[in-house]
Amino acid sequence: MAKLSIKDLDLQGQRVFIRVDFNVPLANGGKEITSDTRIRASLPAIRYALDHGAGVVLASHLGRPDGEVNPEMSLAPCAARLAELLGRPVKMAPDCVGSEVEAMLPAPGEVLLLENVRFHSEEEDNDPEFSKQLARLCDVYVNDAFGSAHRAHASTAGIAAHVSKAAAGQLMDKEVEYLTLVTQDPPRPCVAILGGSKVSDKIEVIRNMAKVVDKLLIGGAMAYTFMRAKGEPTGNSKVEEDKVELARELLAEAGDKLVLPVDHVVAKEFKAGASNETVTTIPEGTMALDIGPATVGKFADELRSAKCIIWNGPMGVFEKPPFDAGTVAVAKILADSGAVTVVGGGDSEKAIKVAGVSSKITHISTGGGASLEFLGGRVLPGVAALTDK
Ligand code: AMP
Question: How far is the CA of 316 from the centre of ligand 1 (A)?
Fold first, then answer.
């Protein structure tokens, strides 16, 4: 990567500010963490810094407190969980800036977790004064919160201008490495599979990836907006009427790179277990809720020779079986492909888990929004702010 990595820093005796993503799901009025996956994902960077003689200041947002202190969005439960995982104490700061916090700063080998940065509206405003106050807490800055890298906030971007060095943590490094590979110089043939609900959410991704890949396979509800643009029957399937013209343009731009479903699983009701049939032409009064087996076969043919596969978005309403079959089949094809496989966060990640093939995927992105912006060709502010190598 063209940016400094935590491994390029001399951390001995330094105080390092690591922006982590502890935006964990909470229950019981904010007291109980229901999944600690994100805390575990940050352990390599935290352990690396401690093992190399640094004192560690950690910062994160949690939820959307909108600039107000909200005890239900306190990071205190994360400090307790992190202490268990690290096997050493983690001090919890009452705030993220100010003299009380400055009096608690960690010595080498110690860890201090700052309180939710979004308790201050200046965080999301990327306020320069607030960024400076955060920078006062450290010698060097590390950003390991890829999931927030598409936001130009004080703790993800602004702070970098006020420190001597700003580097990527292990998690950020891996995300940028794989997303750069697939968007700039992928092993070929390279195939992208895009699904999910709306064309409008993924216009930039479709445009940018169409330039990069050899084939672009489209499934999920967004396929029906493309089918409408081609004048094919879509019944009651989800179509974005105001994006049909755009879909026509995208079809023209992508040419025969773009591959649409050739059969569909249709139902009259949008619910799990609804009676359904597989068709090649969508009948009036029915909606297509999944790609059919012939489409899975066609996609498999395209993927068989691929050396690189990028996947974002489910092929159907995978939350409602049996309309998960197409998505699960695609997950299994990826797992057995032998290609470099990169899966964008969110629903595709869930589908990979449901199919039980997570360990066979080269890289599963931890940031849904951030990975979509990256695939769309945008420069992420949290990455741009890091020091060049
Ligand atoms: P996205 O957040 O854009 O990746 O879209 C994910 C959502 O798209 C999921 O909730 C799916 O249920 C939904 N989806 C996928 N295929 C279809 C379809 N054929 N009809 C309606 N919704 C769909």
Answer: 6
Would you call 67 exposed, middle or buried from its count of C-beta atoms within 10 A (0-12, 13-18, 19+)? middle
Known catalytic membership, residue 369: yes
For the chain, which ranges sit under pLDDT 70?
1, 345
Cα of 273 to ligand 1 centre, how many Å?
17
Q: Residue 314 CA: which ligand 1 atom is closest?
A: 15
Q: Give the β-pairing of 287-291 and 308-312.
A: unpaired
Instruction: Write out the CATH class of domain 186-375.
Output: alpha beta
6-173 CATH, one of 3.50.50.60, 1.10.540.10, 3.40.50.620, 3.40.50.1260: 3.40.50.1260
Q: What is the pLDDT of residue 28?
A: 93
- Ligand 1 close to Cβ of residue 197 (< 6 A): yes
Q: What is the dihedral of CA 192, 186, 344, 241, to 10 degrees?
A: -40
Residue with the smallest CA separation from ligand 1 atom 21 is 221
